[in-house]
Amino acid sequence: MTRHQKRFGVRRKSATLLVALGTMAGAALAGAAPADAATWTTVAAGVAYRQYDLPAAAGTTHVHVLSVDLGNTHVRLGLLYPGAVASRAAISSLANSQKAVAGINGDFFNISETQHPGVAATGASVGPAVVNGKALKGAVPNGQRFGPALPPGTNTKAVVGVGTDGKARVDSLSLNGTVSVLGRRLPLGGVNQYALAENSIGAYTSDWGSVSRKRATCGTDTERAAACSTSTYEVTLKKGRVVSTSTTPGSGTITAGTTVLVGREAGAARLKKLVKGQAVAVRYGLTAASKSAYSFAVGGYPILSAAKPLSGLDGSVSAVRTAVGIGNGGKRVYLFALDGATAYRKGLTIAEVAAALKSLGATEGFSLDGGGSSTLVARPAGSTKVTVRNHPSDGYERPVANGIGVFIK
Question: Which of 64, 321, 334, 384 has its CB 3.0 to 4.6 Å from that of 370, i.e. a possible disulfide?
Fold first, then answer.
């Protein structure tokens, strides 16, 4: 279990940097070597990069991949994020500010709110996240996620990460939390999430950021576009005691040592019973299905298990994709991103991505956000800054919620 008990602060970092195509190291793709002739280029000890053409159902696509050797004790993977859950930044900016030598974009995220006029899109990711061994956030309900349909039998709790044992794996992280008042424990339904389950209570900490928390009370467990709840309540705790209440979710920076509880429907009714000055204890953690402890984890969905594609993977819709492959018993990680240049933009189906990861040597595979979010960065030889190796299909780097960074100790 990765546990967090309201005593952590986060330094927020600058959140936006758009990188023009003209500065991208992947700009020249003419004559790129095919997969069977591609050679690896060293980024750092234990980290290598290559690019190659890959024939696919929709036409030839172009692959960019990083091979990361976690058996090298000087190499580690970690979460790239802007210092707040409800924030976005370009992967190159995140990698450079956190001194990563390479990286890719991460989880799907709350990119727009056209269904809820006047409600701010938070930029927060869908699934759970762990940073430096700390539980950063939980998963939104399945019906509230952004992204393509999930494979049968999977859900928003799925993660890919690296355990404290140094091995990468695909897993599932469930939130376990309580709100304790006068000896009575109420279930906690969310932590730093852009969407809460109906009738639940969610906790927001200094990790959330300053974006309005209203989005958390919009939609339902089965329909993201459903109207916002008309029954909401918010309670602010400072040093474990109620200092203020409100009938509507607020916004603004949450200081260290402060927790904001947001309730909807039955959850709101429970919070209305709290009074100013009352002692309230909030505790939570993320528990892995594998019982592993994680140093870092990010959301998405599994596509390859025990070297076999998951049943029901879509084989008809081709798109630009980002994914992670794991091999060698969790000691080899492949960070995989497709090129979004016009010539290659049709991309791969998710079934083809699973096959491509397997061909690299992966036994486990995990899909991350794709389309305009797909970005792979790496430092050129002799540089202290990363460059973008693929062409993001928006024509520039899209600010994203998080990513996976490759670090040299």
Answer: 321
